[in-house]
């Protein structure tokens, strides 16, 4: 084993971006992903601010722009569906929005020939010593790496193993919700519609894919416990929250029950005193999720990946120095985004505090 061997957990956005920059700097990179294949799910992701510089540095900006959803804004409606105002496209779509599956495919394509991808597996144990990390996997044989980087999202397995239980890192913002796609019976043409009030919100935009629209049904909750509960319990909670809601709520509740792409998640932030522990470090949502209501998840993932790899290169691969500099540079940016996430959760009816 050399000092240039790195294991990355997670093959969504932060993981492949890390892999790209690390390979460029001469690292031998392995990416492990618990999904059996490259994920083809997720609706749309947006880019803001310095994320464009990262895409440009990767040589991907022009290609990513070809997948622009060209969203045209969101109508605000009351309980009868009557429009009461409008929000500009930038509120939900940022400066550029693309389907997440397209970004994931692009990042995988530019790394697959030089990076080892291991799908359908996950890390089960991390044991560090002065010279490296011994990693055990749920399926594959144990291996040894110089560094392990967690880019595996809100419920990061790397964070759980190296830093402690999820409950110690997650701060619930008082909002949970179900997302799914259904027939675009609202006739949304690259636009969205939002109804909110009484601690709940209905947001739909489309067409997500042909004649379909993406739907989010969000409501106030006291904890993220439903994230790990069976689907029937999640659906019951959504039905209960929207039982007396008018407009198109009854039809959307029926569509949710029939949906084969339902996902349920809570708006939570990851709040840690440090983003590294020995030879293990966290990037993106795994280390400092700002919540979907911030609109900054993808941008943070890309900027975090570039920032960490830049400091590794500048420190001549001294991971302690690099991890410290990475965190010192990025924390103010993350703090701003997490403030936006809390503000966004409150706007959608959550109980987030400052």
TrEMBL record:
Keyword Transport: no
FAD-binding domain residues: 5-334
Organism: Streptomyces halstedii
PANTHER family: MONOOXYGENASE, OXIDOREDUCTASE-RELATED
Record's keyword terms, sorted: Monooxygenase, Oxidoreductase
Name of the protein: FAD-dependent monooxygenase
Domain of life, per lineage: Bacteria
Molecular function terms, GO-annotated: monooxygenase activity
Stored SUPFAM superfamilies: FAD/NAD(P)-binding domain
Pfam families assigned: FAD_binding_3 (PF01494)
UniProt-listed InterPro entries: FAD-bd (IPR002938), FAD/NAD-bd_sf (IPR036188), FAD_aromatic-hydroxylase (IPR051704)
Lineage of the species this protein comes from: Bacteria, Bacillati, Actinomycetota, Actinomycetes, Kitasatosporales
């Amino acid at each position: 084993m050399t000092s240039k061997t790195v294991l990355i957990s997670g093959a969504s956005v932060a993981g492949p971006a890390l892999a790209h920059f690390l390979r460029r700097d001469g690292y031998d990179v392995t990416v492990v992903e618990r999904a059996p294949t490259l994920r083809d799910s997720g609706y749309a992701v947006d880019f803001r601010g310095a994320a464009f510089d990262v895409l440009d540095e990767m040589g991907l900006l022009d290609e990513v722009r070809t997948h622009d959803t060209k969203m045209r804004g969101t109508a605000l409606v009351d309980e009868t569906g009557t429009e009461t105002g409008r929000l500009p496209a930038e509120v939900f779509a940022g400066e550029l929005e693309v389907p997440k599956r397209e970004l994931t495919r692009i990042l995988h394509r530019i790394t697959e020939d030089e990076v080892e991808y291991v799908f359908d597996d996950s890390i089960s144990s991390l044991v560090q010593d002065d010279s490296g990390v011994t990693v055990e996997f749920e399926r594959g044989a144990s291996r040894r790496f110089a560094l392990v980087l967690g880019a595996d999202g809100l419920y990061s397995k790397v964070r759980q193993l190296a830093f402690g239980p999820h409950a110690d890192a997650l701060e619930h913002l008082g909002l949970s919700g179900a997302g799914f796609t259904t027939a675009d019976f609202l006739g949304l043409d690259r636009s969205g519609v939002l109804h909110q009030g009484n601690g709940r919100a209905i947001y739909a935009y489309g067409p997500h894919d042909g004649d379909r629209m993406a739907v989010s049904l969000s409501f106030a909750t006291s904890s993220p416990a439903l994230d790990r509960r069976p689907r029937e319990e999640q659906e019951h909670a959504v039905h209960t929250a929207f039982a007396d809601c008018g407009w198109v709520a009854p039809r959307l509740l029926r569509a949710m029950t029939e949906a084969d792409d339902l996902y349920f998640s809570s708006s939570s932030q990851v709040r840690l005193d440090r983003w590294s522990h020995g030879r293990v470090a966290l990037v993106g949502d795994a280390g400092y999720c700002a919540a979907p209501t911030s609109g900054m998840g993808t941008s943070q993932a890309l900027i975090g990946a570039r920032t960490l790899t830049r400091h590794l290169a500048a420190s001549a691969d001294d991971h302690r120095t690099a991890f410290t500099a990475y965190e010192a540079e990025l924390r103010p940016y993350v703090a701003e985004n997490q403030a936006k996430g809390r503000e966004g959760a409150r706007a959608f009816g959550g109980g987030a505090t400052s």
